[in-house]
């Protein structure tokens, strides 16, 4: 699974050419100044002396700034479970091959690793759908496997076979190859997020993302994509101690990686447990859930108020278990009725929800797209709902239907 999922600035004409017009020196200045471009939410009490025609002695008057704080971006508020004026919208795999501008870039830069590990390319690709469709969320163009080299696990991506790992971890000795996060191996993550935050500002929410420990470990143990996961599932029975150590080590590193992304500008982070739904619920409870919570706890220790979203493909049998996690928002796949999913989650603990239009609907008519969007939003309600697909955008999806999806979302108003 390649995990990539990205409103123009006030002047869309200038945003379209920002990459070509911004020199390397310009990027450097953005990176240098981004840490000082803090929110203007801090307001100070101002004092001044006012002259009075009726008195020769000036009186001291205190003028206090309004206590009303600037609102966080729409998507951040929705992911926290707040009521919003309309449903914020973004799409998983928002940037990708369904867009002609991406395909043209990919022809010039055929290596996925290069596209997802070169700062200028990451920024450009991330912003392609933002310029075209003005979504409320801009998600970093990257891959869930990107941090693996930073923890001692190299990988390659084959155009046909997908991710390939020369070295797998299947023994205590293999476990020694892992180490704590070395961010010098992934400098483009911090650089890209800082530039993106500067470009987007608060006109949309900048999202980071990570893979859940179980999902990452399927690659680390299997060595490639799998349809059965028999090696790692067998390890759960034959060597549970080793698998628990591996999962815990990965969870600790991914928790740090979440913090790193937030430090760099991410305002919300999504955890993809892409292959969690391949586990029976009782196995997910033991082999995925505790390690997702470990990631969450690590991130919360530094950033308790940054919203975290969890998405697991095929999570229909997991919703109540997912609701027990200290997560802010739960993504529903397209096979779950939104009203039913919301009810099941809230029966355990009230959470925000995300989703869950069937991505295939985007191949249908504009009327069908509008009906699907409005139906999901009506079932989700005005509080704590982030509009999304129930899975990533499919290759071949018409761009005009993606645009219509976002256009419709902006016409839905809540009282």
TrEMBL record:
What residue spans carry the region label Disordered? 1-87
Write one Pfam family the protein is assigned to: URO-D
Question: What positions does the domain Uroporphyrinogen decarboxylase (URO-D) occupy?
Answer: 88-97, 207-223
Q: Where mainly found?
A: plastid
Record EC number: 4.1.1.37
List the molecular function annotations (GO) for this entry. uroporphyrinogen decarboxylase activity
Q: Which UniProt keywords apply?
A: Decarboxylase, Lyase, Porphyrin biosynthesis
Q: Which reaction does it catalyse?
A: uroporphyrinogen III + 4 H(+) = coproporphyrinogen III + 4 CO2
Q: Which GO terms describe its biological process?
A: protoporphyrinogen IX biosynthetic process
CDD domains recorded: URO-D
Biased composition of type Polar residues is found at 16-26
Q: Which InterPro entries match?
A: UROD/MetE-like_sf (IPR038071), Uroporphyrinogen_deCO2ase_HemE (IPR006361), Uroporphyrinogen_deCOase (IPR000257)
Q: Where is the composition biased (Low complexity)?
A: 1-15, 50-67
Q: How does it assemble?
A: Homodimer.
Q: What protein does this entry describe?
A: Uroporphyrinogen decarboxylase
- Taxonomic placement: Eukaryota, Viridiplantae, Chlorophyta, Mamiellophyceae, Mamiellales
């Amino acid at each position: 699974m390649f995990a990539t999922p990205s409103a123009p600035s006030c002047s869309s004409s200038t945003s379209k050419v920002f990459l070509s017009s911004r020199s390397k020196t310009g990027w450097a200045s953005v990176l240098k100044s981004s840490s000082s471009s803090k929110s203007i939410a801090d307001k100070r009490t101002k004092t001044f002396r006012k002259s009075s025609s009726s008195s020769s002695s000036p009186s001291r008057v205190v003028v206090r700034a309004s206590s009303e704080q600037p609102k966080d971006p729409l998507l951040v508020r929705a992911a926290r479970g707040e009521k919003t004026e309309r449903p914020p919208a973004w799409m998983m795999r928002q940037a990708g091959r369904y867009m002609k501008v991406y395909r043209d870039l990919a022809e010039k830069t055929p290596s996925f690793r290069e596209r997802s590990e070169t700062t200028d390319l990451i920024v450009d690709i991330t912003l392609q759908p933002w310029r075209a469709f003005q979504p409320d969320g801009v998600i970093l163009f990257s891959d869930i496997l990107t941090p693996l080299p930073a923890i001692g696990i190299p990988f390659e991506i084959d155009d046909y076979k997908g991710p390939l790992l020369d070295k797998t971890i299947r023994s205590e000795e293999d476990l020694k190859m892992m180490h704590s996060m070395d961010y010098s191996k992934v400098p483009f993550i911090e650089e890209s997020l800082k530039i993106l935050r500067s470009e987007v500002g608060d006109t949309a929410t900048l999202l980071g993302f990570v893979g859940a420990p179980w999902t990452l470990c399927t690659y680390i143990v299997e060595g490639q994509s799998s349809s059965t996961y028999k090696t790692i599932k067998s390890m759960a029975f034959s060597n549970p101690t080793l698998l628990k150590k591996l999962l815990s080590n990965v969870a600790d590193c991914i928790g740090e990686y979440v913090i790193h992304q937030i430090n760099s500008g991410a305002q919300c982070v999504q955890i993809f447990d892409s292959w969690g739904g391949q586990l029976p619920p009782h196995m997910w409870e033991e082999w995925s859930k505790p390690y997702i919570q470990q990631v969450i706890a690590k991130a919360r220790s530094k950033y308790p108020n940054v919203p975290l979203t969890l998405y697991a493909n095929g999570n229909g049998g997991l919703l109540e278990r997912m609701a027990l996690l200290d997560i802010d928002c739960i993504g529903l796949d397209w096979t779950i009725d939104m009203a039913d999913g919301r009810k099941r989650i809230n029966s355990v603990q009230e959470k925000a929800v995300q989703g869950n239009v069937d991505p295939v609907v985007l191949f249908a008519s504009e009327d069908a797209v509008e009906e699907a969007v409005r139906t999901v939003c009506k079932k989700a309600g005005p509080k704590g709902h982030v509009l999304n697909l129930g899975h990533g955008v499919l290759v071949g999806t018409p761009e005009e239907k993606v645009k219509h999806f976002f256009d419709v979302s902006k016409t839905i108003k809540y009282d």
